Amino acid sequence: MNNQLAEKIKLDLPSISYREEKLGNGLNLIMCRSGNIPMTAINTTVHAGSKDEEETKTGVAHLFEHLMFEGSPNIAQGKFDEVLTLNGGESNAYTTWDTTSYQITVPSNKLELALWLDSDRFTGFAVNEESLEIQKEVVLEEKLMYTDNSPYGSVEEESSKCLFKSSGYKNPIIGNMDDVKKLSLNDLRDFFEKHYSPGNMTLTVVGDIDFDETYNLVSKYYGDIIPKKSVERKDYHEDTITSEIRKDIYDNIHLDGKFIFYRLPEAGSKEYYAMSILNGILS
Q1: What is residue 231's predicted lDDT score, i.e. its pLDDT?
Q2: What are phi and psi of 17, to 5 degrees?
Q3: What pLDDT does residue 59 have?
Q4: Nearest Cα to 70, choosing from 126, 17, 138?
Q5: DSSP letters of 17-42?
Q6: 193 to 21, 124, 139: CA distances (angstroms)
Q7: CA neighbours within 13 Å on the CB side: how many for 192?
Q8: From CA 121, how far away is CA 98, in angstroms rounded?
Q9: Residue 71 region, left (φ>0) first, then alpha (ψ -120 to 50), else beta?
């Protein structure tokens, strides 16, 4: 690569203005400023997912994600999205094996409202029996729609069983439905107390923001969340796969499908990012 081309590529890289902070209770805060449009997005990631569940209580991380929209200590049941929508905002969330993330997008002049709504969910356990039973039914329907009645819907679940043998990665994120049906308020409260601690969370605020103002608002609404005891990490060790694993799965489909899976390097490692780029090229 000649010097002129290298300089052009260097000049074309976008400049990203960001700032990182850590609150006294352990919460990690990342702020990124982009003032192209008057919108702001916040994302709270809890570093706990389905791999962190007990073997007989699969699905609790994903079910709890649903219930975090059902009300909190200062927000009545069913009012979270109503308040957000009336103020031009929207929300979403997702659960993985490693993390659970909660997202809110609002006009930038409603940032304080969004931070209040989001932070209140983490100040204390507020799930009730009615919400629990409703969301259990929602999860069961989700399983029917996306797994049981979807072509190749069992691929993710079956591949995980092949790739992982001893850790929580072998279980489906949505959980085993027999486990989900039996989950109690105490099971959910235990998961919340174990994992939903500020020191196990990362909050990102991106968009049309002022760093100092945003930091002060985050400190106001998240700074008093009481940290819980240190999170105990399970052993996620898996033996190295040294030979090809083949499995024929018969399902309600009309056309055969062939799927190839590889166990990837750990997220955040140099090898992981290289593999992500290669995956994008190959697919």
Answers
A1: 76
A2: -95, 115
A3: 97
A4: 126
A5: EEEEEE-TTS-EEEEEE--SSSEEEE
A6: 24, 9, 22
A7: 20
A8: 20
A9: left
Separation in Å, CA 74 to CA 122, 163, 164, 258: 11, 43, 41, 50
Which residues of the chain carry a pLDDT beneath 50? none
Give me the phi and psi of 170, to 5 degrees please: -80, -15
Q: Report the pLDDT value the prediction gives residue 251, as an integer from 0 to 100.
A: 84
Task: Quote the CA–CA distance of 152 and 160 in Å, as a whole number.
Answer: 14
For 68, phi then psi, to 5°, come to -70, -5
What is each CA distance from 211 to 31, 62, 118, 197, in whole angstroms? 7, 32, 19, 24
Contacts 24+ apart (CB under 8 A), 61-64: 61/95, 61/100, 61/173, 61/191, 62/95, 62/100, 62/139, 62/173, 62/174, 62/175, 63/135, 63/136, 63/139, 63/175, 63/180, 63/183, 63/188, 64/100, 64/127, 64/188, 64/191, 64/192
Identify whether the C-beta of residue 269 lies closer than 8 Å to the C-beta of residue 191. no
Quote the CA–CA distance of 54 and 31 in Å, as a whole number: 34
CA distances from 201 to 107, 237, 253 (A): 24, 23, 41
**Rounded Cα–Cα distance for residues 225 and 223 (Å):** 6
Closest CA to 69 of 89, 98, 97: 89
Distance, CA of 196 to chain centre: 12
Alpha helices in 21-99 (DSSP H): 60-67, 80-86
Cα–Cα distance for residue pair 189/129, rounded to 1 Å:
12
- The pLDDT, as a whole number, for residue 10 is 60
- pTM as predicted: 0.89
214 vs 212: CA distance, rounded Å? 5
Residue 268 CB partners (closer than 8 Å, separation 6+): none
Q: How many residues does the chain have?
A: 283
